[in-house]
Amino acid sequence: MRNLATIRRISKLETIDGADRIEKATIDGWSCVVKKGELKEGAFCVYFEIDALLPIREEYEFLRNSCYKKTSAQEGFRLRTCRFKGVVSQGLALPIDILPPEINIEENSDVTEILGVQLYTPVEGVVLSGNAKGNFPNWIRKTDQERIENLFDKYSSLYRNEFFEVSIKLDGTSATYYHNNGELGVCSRNLELKESEGNTYWNIEKKYNILALLKSYGKNIAVQGEVIGSGIQGNNEKLTDHRFFIFDIYDIDKRRYMTPGERHEAIAEIMSFNCEREYNLEQVPILGSIKVFDMFNDIKALKEYSVGPSMCPAARREGLVFKSMSLIDGNTVSFKSISNEYLLKQKE
Asked: Do residue 110 and residue 179 come from a single domain?
């Protein structure tokens, strides 16, 4: 589960030109507009990340006019990327005294469940739900990349000489298709799904013949990717149908993700079984490989690099994903950098 609410330290407070009642706080790699005088530099706060849905409680009622959201499944105050007086603000920082008195105050402690915070899930216009066969298999890693805002200082010291594959992050819904010792399965982000009529995940499986290809390939792997297109997350790429783009392959036997090179080779071999099919499996757009933390000395420069065109040249990309070209301590290292320009234009 993503840590949407954590105990953090305010590393810096800055005045905002033309603003008497607000100021800019820096919290790790995040910038956040806060009420002037409410927080102190160097002190602890409770930091809520963007996409957090705060519960309906008195202490959050000041967010009602700007953040209130109600769907068929959720109700609360949704945090988004905003701009105040020209300053980009991401998330919310509040004094530590909003926590119950019995809570032990430790830096980076996760207080998401304690505060009843959820991840906001937009309502989709296509059939993404389905008949659950069970929970997401516990022998496959779920698809989720940590944001660079939480990692930059640590990673820049550890991985300055490492090359990372750079790929465009497509804005859709993640899907997983697996083969494991003869067993085949289709999964959404959180569930394994029974085959059902009209379900988008299963429609993608039929379109690309994924399970038959994995069975022919024979190895125990989970192919993970993004389903994008009409009715999904605003359809940023302006597609008239639904398409599937692979961003990772999980090696079930080795219990790790393949490196980019291993992934390219595996997809080529899987596609060798694709006889006379109309659709071929494809990867997310890959821009190349770079030494990220040698190329960018601060998070601001890396965030600016994340801005640009998407797969559809007329569309802004959601951001970039970075994956280590080689194994580091037996695993790949990866993270994402989301474009603030993209976040600011989102309406839902």
From this structure: no
Please report the DSSP string for 284-339 in residue order. Answer: PPEEEEE-HHHH-SSHHHHHHHT-SB-SSTTSB--EEEEEESS-BTTB--EEEEE-
Phi, psi of 33 (to 5 degrees): -85, 130
**Residue 265 DSSP label:** H
d(CA 65, CA 68): 7
Given 3-state DSSP classes, what are the helix, strand and coil percentages for the chain, each rounded to the nearest 5?
A: 20, 35, 45
Residues 139 and 71 in one domain: no
Rounded distance between C-alpha atoms, residue 48 and residue 117, angstroms: 9
Domain count for the chain = 2
Structural domain range at position 61: 5-119
Single-letter residue type at 47: Y
Distance (Å, rounded) from C-alpha 31 to C-alpha 16?
12
pLDDT tens-digit series, residues 126-164: 656 668 899 999 999 988 899 999 999 999 999 999 999
- Find where tokens 């690309």 sit: 208
Residue 225 lies in a domain: yes
pLDDT at 278 over 90: no
Convert the pLDDT of each residue in 97-133 to its tens digit.
Answer: 999 999 999 999 999 999 999 999 876 656 566 688 9
**DSSP string across 168-216:** EEP-SEEEEEEEETTEEEEE-SSEEE---TT-HHHHHHHHHTHHHHHHH
The answer to whether 85 touches 16, Cβ cutoff 8 Å, is: yes
Q: Which of 18, 257, 269 is nearest to 145 (CA)?
A: 257
pLDDT confidence of residue 22: 96
- Short-list 344, 340, 336, CA closest to 170: 336
- 113, 79, 154, 127: which is closest to 3 by C-alpha? 113
